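[agent] plan:
  1. take the single chain provided in the ticket
  2. run structure prediction with default settings
  3. attach C-alpha coordinates to the ticket
  4. add a short note for the reviewer (M.T.)
[agent] executing step 1
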Amino acid sequence: MLHTRLQHTQKPRCMYKGVRAFCEHTVDDTSSSFLWDSSLFPDGPVTVGMSLDIASIDTISEINMDYTATIFLRQRWTDERLVFEGNKSLSLDGRLVELLWVPDTFIVDSKKSFLHDITVENRLIRIFPNGTVLYALRITTTVACNMDLTKYPMDKQTCTLQLESWGYNINDVMFYWTRGNESVSGLDTLQLAQYTVEDHYTSVSEAVYETGNYPKLVFHFELKRSILYFILETYVPSSLLVVLSWVSFWISLSSVPARICIGVTTVLTMTTLMMGARTSLPNANCFIKAIDVYLGICFSFIFGALIEYAVAHFCTLTHADAHMLMYGHHMHDFDDEMNGIVTTISTHARAKRRKEPAAAPPPAPASLELTVSPSSPSGSEPKPEAPPPEPANWCLTALATVRKVLRSIYCCHVENPHHIDNYSRVTFPLSFVMVNLLYWTYYLYF
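[agent] step 2 finished; step 3 output follows
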Protein backbone atom coordinates (compact mmCIF):
# COMPACT_ATOMS: atom_id res chain seq x y z
CA MET A 1 0.00 0.00 0.00
CA LEU A 2 0.99 3.51 -0.71
CA HIS A 3 1.40 5.59 2.45
CA THR A 4 1.81 9.35 2.33
CA ARG A 5 2.74 11.08 5.54
CA LEU A 6 2.16 14.81 5.65
CA GLN A 7 3.70 16.86 8.41
CA HIS A 8 3.72 20.57 9.07
CA THR A 9 7.49 20.61 8.80
CA GLN A 10 7.54 19.16 5.30
CA LYS A 11 5.45 20.25 2.33
CA PRO A 12 4.06 17.45 0.11
CA ARG A 13 5.51 17.15 -3.35
CA CYS A 14 2.71 17.39 -5.94
CA MET A 15 3.38 16.70 -9.58
CA TYR A 16 0.08 17.97 -11.01
CA LYS A 17 -1.56 21.32 -10.70
CA GLY A 18 -4.87 19.88 -9.46
CA VAL A 19 -3.12 17.80 -6.87
CA ARG A 20 -1.04 20.78 -5.77
CA ALA A 21 -4.17 22.81 -5.17
CA PHE A 22 -5.73 19.89 -3.36
CA CYS A 23 -2.68 19.54 -1.16
CA GLU A 24 -2.56 23.25 -0.38
CA HIS A 25 -6.16 23.19 0.73
CA THR A 26 -6.00 19.99 2.74
CA VAL A 27 -2.72 20.44 4.57
CA ASP A 28 -3.03 22.20 7.90
CA ASP A 29 0.31 23.81 8.72
CA THR A 30 -0.66 24.20 12.35
CA SER A 31 -1.40 20.54 12.93
CA SER A 32 1.26 18.35 14.40
CA SER A 33 0.87 15.53 11.89
CA PHE A 34 -1.54 14.13 9.37
CA LEU A 35 -1.65 10.48 8.36
CA TRP A 36 -3.21 9.49 5.04
CA ASP A 37 -3.72 5.85 4.13
CA SER A 38 -5.80 4.96 1.09
CA SER A 39 -6.42 1.48 2.45
CA LEU A 40 -8.21 2.79 5.55
CA PHE A 41 -11.98 2.78 5.47
CA PRO A 42 -13.62 6.20 6.00
CA ASP A 43 -15.25 6.86 9.33
CA GLY A 44 -18.76 5.45 9.69
CA PRO A 45 -20.89 3.62 7.11
CA VAL A 46 -20.31 5.02 3.63
CA THR A 47 -23.31 5.69 1.42
CA VAL A 48 -22.47 5.27 -2.25
CA GLY A 49 -24.80 6.64 -4.90
CA MET A 50 -24.62 5.25 -8.41
CA SER A 51 -25.81 6.18 -11.86
CA LEU A 52 -25.37 4.61 -15.30
CA ASP A 53 -25.15 5.87 -18.82
CA ILE A 54 -25.65 3.14 -21.43
CA ALA A 55 -23.39 4.07 -24.34
CA SER A 56 -24.26 1.03 -26.48
CA ILE A 57 -25.50 -2.52 -26.42
CA ASP A 58 -23.34 -4.16 -29.01
CA THR A 59 -24.61 -7.74 -29.23
CA ILE A 60 -27.39 -9.84 -27.74
CA SER A 61 -26.65 -13.53 -28.21
CA GLU A 62 -29.34 -16.19 -27.88
CA ILE A 63 -26.74 -18.93 -28.29
CA ASN A 64 -24.63 -17.82 -25.31
CA MET A 65 -27.57 -16.11 -23.56
CA ASP A 66 -25.72 -12.91 -22.81
CA TYR A 67 -25.37 -9.33 -23.96
CA THR A 68 -22.40 -7.02 -24.39
CA ALA A 69 -22.74 -3.36 -23.38
CA THR A 70 -20.53 -0.34 -22.95
CA ILE A 71 -21.49 1.72 -19.90
CA PHE A 72 -20.35 4.75 -17.96
CA LEU A 73 -20.48 3.89 -14.27
CA ARG A 74 -20.53 6.85 -11.89
CA GLN A 75 -20.14 6.48 -8.12
CA ARG A 76 -20.48 9.22 -5.48
CA TRP A 77 -19.60 9.07 -1.83
CA THR A 78 -18.36 11.42 0.87
CA ASP A 79 -15.02 11.10 2.59
CA GLU A 80 -14.64 13.61 5.41
CA ARG A 81 -10.88 13.35 5.21
CA LEU A 82 -11.02 15.10 1.81
CA VAL A 83 -12.87 18.25 2.97
CA PHE A 84 -11.16 21.44 1.91
CA GLU A 85 -12.02 25.12 1.75
CA GLY A 86 -13.22 26.60 -1.48
CA ASN A 87 -16.19 26.61 -3.78
CA LYS A 88 -14.80 24.78 -6.79
CA SER A 89 -14.35 21.10 -7.40
CA LEU A 90 -11.00 19.60 -8.24
CA SER A 91 -10.50 17.20 -11.16
CA LEU A 92 -7.60 14.83 -10.60
CA ASP A 93 -5.73 12.57 -12.94
CA GLY A 94 -7.23 9.09 -13.12
CA ARG A 95 -3.90 7.51 -12.27
CA LEU A 96 -4.13 8.99 -8.76
CA VAL A 97 -7.05 6.73 -7.89
CA GLU A 98 -4.64 4.54 -5.97
CA LEU A 99 -4.22 7.38 -3.47
CA LEU A 100 -7.94 7.39 -2.62
CA TRP A 101 -10.33 4.93 -1.06
CA VAL A 102 -12.87 3.69 -3.64
CA PRO A 103 -15.75 1.21 -3.30
CA ASP A 104 -15.05 -2.35 -4.40
CA THR A 105 -17.99 -2.49 -6.78
CA PHE A 106 -18.23 -5.37 -9.24
CA ILE A 107 -20.74 -6.50 -11.89
CA VAL A 108 -22.59 -9.68 -11.00
CA ASP A 109 -22.95 -12.33 -13.76
CA SER A 110 -20.21 -10.67 -15.78
CA LYS A 111 -18.47 -13.11 -18.09
CA LYS A 112 -15.85 -10.72 -19.38
CA SER A 113 -15.18 -7.05 -18.68
CA PHE A 114 -12.43 -4.56 -19.39
CA LEU A 115 -11.67 -0.93 -18.72
CA HIS A 116 -10.90 1.22 -21.73
CA ASP A 117 -7.38 2.59 -21.71
CA ILE A 118 -7.02 4.54 -24.97
CA THR A 119 -5.32 6.93 -24.85
CA VAL A 120 -5.19 6.66 -21.07
CA GLU A 121 -7.34 4.73 -18.64
CA ASN A 122 -10.86 6.12 -18.90
CA ARG A 123 -11.25 7.18 -15.29
CA LEU A 124 -12.62 10.35 -13.81
CA ILE A 125 -11.91 11.59 -10.28
CA ARG A 126 -13.52 14.77 -9.08
CA ILE A 127 -13.42 15.99 -5.46
CA PHE A 128 -15.82 18.61 -4.10
CA PRO A 129 -15.12 20.94 -1.15
CA ASN A 130 -17.44 19.03 1.19
CA GLY A 131 -15.43 15.84 0.65
CA THR A 132 -17.72 14.29 -1.96
CA VAL A 133 -15.88 12.16 -4.49
CA LEU A 134 -17.13 11.46 -8.02
CA TYR A 135 -15.54 8.40 -9.55
CA ALA A 136 -16.50 7.50 -13.14
CA LEU A 137 -15.41 4.57 -15.31
CA ARG A 138 -15.96 3.51 -18.91
CA ILE A 139 -16.47 -0.26 -18.99
CA THR A 140 -17.36 -2.79 -21.66
CA THR A 141 -18.84 -5.92 -20.15
CA THR A 142 -20.47 -9.14 -21.28
CA VAL A 143 -23.24 -10.07 -18.86
CA ALA A 144 -25.28 -13.26 -18.71
CA CYS A 145 -29.01 -12.95 -19.36
CA ASN A 146 -31.36 -15.87 -18.81
CA MET A 147 -33.74 -15.95 -21.76
CA ASP A 148 -37.05 -17.71 -22.21
CA LEU A 149 -37.20 -18.59 -25.91
CA THR A 150 -40.55 -20.36 -25.85
CA LYS A 151 -42.18 -17.63 -27.95
CA TYR A 152 -39.16 -16.91 -30.14
CA PRO A 153 -39.25 -14.76 -32.30
CA MET A 154 -42.30 -13.12 -30.69
CA ASP A 155 -40.63 -13.07 -27.31
CA LYS A 156 -39.78 -10.42 -24.74
CA GLN A 157 -36.63 -10.74 -22.70
CA THR A 158 -35.89 -9.07 -19.37
CA CYS A 159 -32.19 -8.67 -18.69
CA THR A 160 -30.48 -7.17 -15.66
CA LEU A 161 -27.29 -5.39 -14.73
CA GLN A 162 -26.45 -6.05 -11.08
CA LEU A 163 -23.92 -4.12 -9.02
CA GLU A 164 -22.65 -5.40 -5.68
CA SER A 165 -19.95 -4.70 -3.16
CA TRP A 166 -17.31 -7.41 -3.08
CA GLY A 167 -15.91 -7.13 0.43
CA TYR A 168 -17.90 -4.53 2.37
CA ASN A 169 -21.19 -5.69 3.82
CA ILE A 170 -24.27 -3.61 4.55
CA ASN A 171 -22.81 -2.47 7.86
CA ASP A 172 -19.92 -0.79 6.04
CA VAL A 173 -21.36 0.37 2.71
CA MET A 174 -24.86 1.20 1.47
CA PHE A 175 -25.70 1.50 -2.23
CA TYR A 176 -28.49 3.61 -3.69
CA TRP A 177 -29.55 5.00 -7.05
CA THR A 178 -28.93 8.74 -7.16
CA ARG A 179 -32.13 9.63 -9.07
CA GLY A 180 -34.25 6.49 -8.86
CA ASN A 181 -35.36 5.17 -12.26
CA GLU A 182 -33.82 8.22 -13.92
CA SER A 183 -30.38 7.18 -12.73
CA VAL A 184 -29.96 5.19 -15.95
CA SER A 185 -29.87 7.15 -19.20
CA GLY A 186 -29.03 6.48 -22.82
CA LEU A 187 -31.69 3.87 -23.57
CA ASP A 188 -34.05 6.30 -25.27
CA THR A 189 -31.59 6.96 -28.07
CA LEU A 190 -30.29 3.40 -28.27
CA GLN A 191 -30.62 1.67 -31.65
CA LEU A 192 -30.62 -2.14 -31.65
CA ALA A 193 -30.67 -4.50 -34.63
CA GLN A 194 -33.47 -6.87 -33.61
CA TYR A 195 -34.81 -5.37 -30.40
CA THR A 196 -36.56 -2.33 -29.03
CA VAL A 197 -36.31 -1.29 -25.38
CA GLU A 198 -39.87 -1.28 -24.05
CA ASP A 199 -39.31 -0.56 -20.37
CA HIS A 200 -36.58 -0.18 -17.77
CA TYR A 201 -36.50 0.39 -14.03
CA THR A 202 -34.15 0.15 -11.06
CA SER A 203 -34.34 -1.64 -7.73
CA VAL A 204 -32.36 -1.89 -4.49
CA SER A 205 -31.84 -5.17 -2.68
CA GLU A 206 -29.36 -7.18 -0.66
CA ALA A 207 -27.22 -10.09 -1.72
CA VAL A 208 -27.18 -12.85 0.88
CA TYR A 209 -24.12 -15.06 1.01
CA GLU A 210 -22.52 -17.30 3.57
CA THR A 211 -20.16 -14.49 4.57
CA GLY A 212 -22.93 -11.95 5.15
CA ASN A 213 -25.32 -9.55 3.48
CA TYR A 214 -23.98 -7.18 0.86
CA PRO A 215 -25.53 -4.13 -0.81
CA LYS A 216 -26.91 -4.69 -4.28
CA LEU A 217 -28.31 -2.49 -7.05
CA VAL A 218 -30.21 -3.96 -10.00
CA PHE A 219 -31.06 -2.35 -13.30
CA HIS A 220 -33.84 -4.11 -15.23
CA PHE A 221 -34.57 -3.51 -18.91
CA GLU A 222 -37.13 -5.25 -21.12
CA LEU A 223 -36.32 -6.02 -24.74
CA LYS A 224 -38.94 -6.81 -27.37
CA ARG A 225 -37.80 -8.58 -30.51
CA SER A 226 -38.70 -7.11 -33.89
CA ILE A 227 -40.60 -9.78 -35.79
CA LEU A 228 -40.52 -8.14 -39.22
CA TYR A 229 -37.12 -9.62 -40.04
CA PHE A 230 -38.31 -13.14 -39.23
CA ILE A 231 -41.53 -12.69 -41.20
CA LEU A 232 -39.54 -11.83 -44.31
CA GLU A 233 -36.78 -14.36 -43.64
CA THR A 234 -38.68 -17.43 -42.44
CA TYR A 235 -42.46 -17.15 -42.23
CA VAL A 236 -43.16 -15.89 -45.76
CA PRO A 237 -40.83 -18.39 -47.53
CA SER A 238 -42.21 -21.33 -45.56
CA SER A 239 -45.80 -20.28 -46.30
CA LEU A 240 -45.01 -19.91 -50.00
CA LEU A 241 -43.51 -23.39 -50.02
CA VAL A 242 -46.78 -24.74 -48.61
CA VAL A 243 -48.73 -22.94 -51.33
CA LEU A 244 -46.30 -24.30 -53.95
CA SER A 245 -46.99 -27.84 -52.78
CA TRP A 246 -50.68 -27.28 -53.54
CA VAL A 247 -49.92 -26.71 -57.22
CA SER A 248 -49.70 -30.49 -57.63
CA PHE A 249 -53.44 -30.75 -56.94
CA TRP A 250 -54.10 -29.14 -60.33
CA ILE A 251 -51.75 -31.48 -62.21
CA SER A 252 -53.13 -34.67 -63.71
CA LEU A 253 -52.66 -37.86 -61.76
CA SER A 254 -51.04 -39.44 -64.78
CA SER A 255 -48.21 -36.87 -64.70
CA VAL A 256 -46.14 -38.82 -62.23
CA PRO A 257 -42.75 -37.09 -62.78
CA ALA A 258 -44.20 -33.59 -62.48
CA ARG A 259 -46.05 -34.23 -59.22
CA ILE A 260 -43.23 -36.21 -57.64
CA CYS A 261 -40.75 -33.47 -58.57
CA ILE A 262 -42.87 -30.76 -56.92
CA GLY A 263 -43.43 -32.82 -53.79
CA VAL A 264 -39.81 -33.87 -53.24
CA THR A 265 -38.45 -30.40 -54.07
CA THR A 266 -40.72 -28.63 -51.59
CA VAL A 267 -39.91 -31.17 -48.87
CA LEU A 268 -36.15 -30.76 -49.33
CA THR A 269 -36.39 -26.97 -49.51
CA MET A 270 -38.46 -26.90 -46.33
CA THR A 271 -35.90 -29.09 -44.59
CA THR A 272 -33.11 -26.70 -45.58
CA LEU A 273 -35.13 -23.73 -44.33
CA MET A 274 -35.70 -25.44 -40.98
CA MET A 275 -31.99 -26.16 -40.57
CA GLY A 276 -31.09 -22.56 -41.41
CA ALA A 277 -33.56 -21.19 -38.88
CA ARG A 278 -31.93 -23.21 -36.10
CA THR A 279 -28.36 -22.10 -36.74
CA SER A 280 -28.81 -18.87 -34.76
CA LEU A 281 -30.28 -20.66 -31.75
CA PRO A 282 -28.68 -22.79 -29.04
CA ASN A 283 -28.63 -26.45 -30.01
CA ALA A 284 -28.92 -27.66 -26.42
CA ASN A 285 -31.95 -25.53 -25.72
CA CYS A 286 -34.81 -27.65 -24.45
CA PHE A 287 -37.47 -25.09 -25.36
CA ILE A 288 -39.90 -25.77 -28.20
CA LYS A 289 -39.86 -22.38 -29.84
CA ALA A 290 -42.69 -20.72 -31.72
CA ILE A 291 -40.72 -20.70 -34.95
CA ASP A 292 -40.11 -24.45 -34.60
CA VAL A 293 -43.84 -25.02 -34.25
CA TYR A 294 -44.61 -23.01 -37.39
CA LEU A 295 -41.92 -24.70 -39.44
CA GLY A 296 -43.20 -28.06 -38.25
CA ILE A 297 -46.72 -27.13 -39.34
CA CYS A 298 -45.51 -26.08 -42.78
CA PHE A 299 -43.45 -29.24 -43.16
CA SER A 300 -46.47 -31.36 -42.21
CA PHE A 301 -48.63 -29.71 -44.87
CA ILE A 302 -45.96 -30.12 -47.54
CA PHE A 303 -45.38 -33.74 -46.63
CA GLY A 304 -49.15 -34.28 -46.53
CA ALA A 305 -49.45 -32.99 -50.10
CA LEU A 306 -46.86 -35.55 -51.20
CA ILE A 307 -48.68 -38.34 -49.37
CA GLU A 308 -51.97 -37.20 -50.94
CA TYR A 309 -50.60 -37.85 -54.41
CA ALA A 310 -49.32 -41.27 -53.39
CA VAL A 311 -52.77 -42.21 -52.10
CA ALA A 312 -54.56 -40.77 -55.13
CA HIS A 313 -52.22 -42.53 -57.55
CA PHE A 314 -52.64 -45.84 -55.72
CA CYS A 315 -56.42 -45.49 -55.83
CA THR A 316 -56.25 -44.73 -59.54
CA LEU A 317 -54.37 -47.95 -60.24
CA THR A 318 -56.71 -49.97 -58.04
CA HIS A 319 -59.74 -48.40 -59.66
CA ALA A 320 -58.46 -49.30 -63.16
CA ASP A 321 -57.72 -52.93 -62.18
CA ALA A 322 -61.17 -53.34 -60.68
CA HIS A 323 -62.79 -52.02 -63.85
CA MET A 324 -60.81 -54.46 -65.97
CA LEU A 325 -61.78 -57.35 -63.70
CA MET A 326 -65.44 -56.39 -63.73
CA TYR A 327 -65.35 -56.05 -67.51
CA GLY A 328 -63.87 -59.54 -67.85
CA HIS A 329 -66.48 -60.95 -65.48
CA HIS A 330 -69.31 -59.39 -67.49
CA MET A 331 -67.86 -60.80 -70.73
CA HIS A 332 -67.80 -64.30 -69.24
CA ASP A 333 -71.39 -63.93 -68.13
CA PHE A 334 -72.37 -62.77 -71.62
CA ASP A 335 -70.66 -65.80 -73.17
CA ASP A 336 -72.46 -68.17 -70.80
CA GLU A 337 -75.77 -66.54 -71.61
CA MET A 338 -75.21 -66.85 -75.34
CA ASN A 339 -74.26 -70.52 -74.96
CA GLY A 340 -77.47 -71.18 -73.05
CA ILE A 341 -79.60 -69.52 -75.73
CA VAL A 342 -77.98 -71.58 -78.50
CA THR A 343 -78.44 -74.83 -76.52
CA THR A 344 -82.13 -74.08 -75.88
CA ILE A 345 -82.84 -73.39 -79.58
CA SER A 346 -81.24 -76.66 -80.72
CA THR A 347 -83.18 -78.68 -78.10
CA HIS A 348 -86.53 -77.24 -79.23
CA ALA A 349 -85.72 -78.06 -82.84
CA ARG A 350 -84.98 -81.73 -82.09
CA ALA A 351 -88.19 -82.16 -80.07
CA LYS A 352 -90.29 -80.79 -82.92
CA ARG A 353 -88.84 -83.23 -85.38
CA ARG A 354 -89.68 -86.22 -83.14
CA LYS A 355 -93.36 -85.33 -82.96
CA GLU A 356 -93.86 -85.45 -86.77
CA PRO A 357 -95.29 -88.87 -88.14
CA ALA A 358 -92.60 -90.73 -89.94
CA ALA A 359 -93.99 -93.03 -92.83
CA ALA A 360 -90.75 -94.27 -93.97
CA PRO A 361 -88.26 -93.05 -91.57
CA PRO A 362 -85.00 -92.75 -93.25
CA PRO A 363 -82.07 -94.32 -91.63
CA ALA A 364 -80.69 -92.10 -88.96
CA PRO A 365 -77.53 -90.49 -90.02
CA ALA A 366 -74.46 -90.92 -88.02
CA SER A 367 -74.54 -87.32 -87.00
CA LEU A 368 -77.88 -87.72 -85.26
CA GLU A 369 -76.78 -90.85 -83.49
CA LEU A 370 -73.90 -89.04 -82.06
CA THR A 371 -76.20 -86.50 -80.42
CA VAL A 372 -78.17 -89.15 -78.51
CA SER A 373 -77.28 -89.30 -74.91
CA PRO A 374 -75.71 -92.65 -74.05
CA SER A 375 -77.26 -92.61 -70.65
CA SER A 376 -80.80 -92.83 -72.08
CA PRO A 377 -81.99 -96.48 -72.30
CA SER A 378 -84.23 -95.94 -75.33
CA GLY A 379 -82.14 -93.24 -76.93
CA SER A 380 -85.32 -91.23 -77.76
CA GLU A 381 -84.87 -88.40 -75.15
CA PRO A 382 -81.44 -86.81 -75.33
CA LYS A 383 -80.33 -84.60 -72.46
CA PRO A 384 -78.29 -81.44 -73.01
CA GLU A 385 -74.93 -81.56 -71.35
CA ALA A 386 -74.45 -79.10 -68.43
CA PRO A 387 -71.68 -76.53 -68.95
CA PRO A 388 -68.58 -77.36 -66.94
CA PRO A 389 -67.93 -75.12 -63.94
CA GLU A 390 -65.52 -72.25 -64.47
CA PRO A 391 -63.49 -71.74 -61.28
CA ALA A 392 -61.49 -68.89 -62.86
CA ASN A 393 -64.60 -66.68 -62.98
CA TRP A 394 -65.20 -67.11 -59.26
CA CYS A 395 -61.59 -66.22 -58.43
CA LEU A 396 -61.70 -63.10 -60.52
CA THR A 397 -65.01 -62.06 -58.98
CA ALA A 398 -63.70 -62.57 -55.43
CA LEU A 399 -60.51 -60.69 -56.23
CA ALA A 400 -62.47 -57.79 -57.70
CA THR A 401 -64.69 -57.68 -54.61
CA VAL A 402 -61.72 -57.62 -52.23
CA ARG A 403 -60.01 -54.89 -54.18
CA LYS A 404 -63.19 -52.86 -54.27
CA VAL A 405 -63.51 -53.09 -50.48
CA LEU A 406 -59.87 -52.07 -50.00
CA ARG A 407 -60.28 -49.21 -52.44
CA SER A 408 -63.32 -48.00 -50.54
CA ILE A 409 -61.41 -48.12 -47.27
CA TYR A 410 -58.28 -46.39 -48.52
CA CYS A 411 -60.05 -43.76 -50.56
CA CYS A 412 -62.68 -42.96 -47.94
CA HIS A 413 -65.46 -44.26 -50.17
CA VAL A 414 -64.40 -42.09 -53.11
CA GLU A 415 -65.73 -43.77 -56.21
CA ASN A 416 -63.63 -41.62 -58.52
CA PRO A 417 -59.99 -41.19 -57.41
CA HIS A 418 -59.82 -37.88 -59.26
CA HIS A 419 -62.15 -36.46 -56.63
CA ILE A 420 -59.32 -36.73 -54.08
CA ASP A 421 -57.54 -33.83 -55.76
CA ASN A 422 -60.80 -31.89 -55.84
CA TYR A 423 -61.27 -32.35 -52.11
CA SER A 424 -57.61 -31.49 -51.41
CA ARG A 425 -57.90 -28.19 -53.28
CA VAL A 426 -60.36 -27.06 -50.62
CA THR A 427 -59.38 -28.89 -47.44
CA PHE A 428 -55.64 -28.11 -47.51
CA PRO A 429 -55.97 -24.28 -47.84
CA LEU A 430 -58.81 -24.09 -45.32
CA SER A 431 -56.90 -26.20 -42.81
CA PHE A 432 -53.76 -24.10 -43.26
CA VAL A 433 -55.68 -20.86 -42.72
CA MET A 434 -57.33 -22.21 -39.57
CA VAL A 435 -54.03 -23.43 -38.13
CA ASN A 436 -52.45 -20.02 -38.84
CA LEU A 437 -55.26 -18.23 -37.03
CA LEU A 438 -54.81 -20.43 -33.97
CA TYR A 439 -51.01 -20.10 -34.11
CA TRP A 440 -50.84 -16.31 -34.31
CA THR A 441 -53.63 -15.81 -31.78
CA TYR A 442 -51.92 -18.00 -29.21
CA TYR A 443 -48.39 -16.63 -29.55
CA LEU A 444 -49.35 -12.96 -29.87
CA TYR A 445 -52.05 -12.65 -27.20
CA PHE A 446 -51.36 -15.45 -24.70
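[agent] step 4 note for reviewer: Residues 290-355 form the longest helix (66 residues).
[agent] ticket updated
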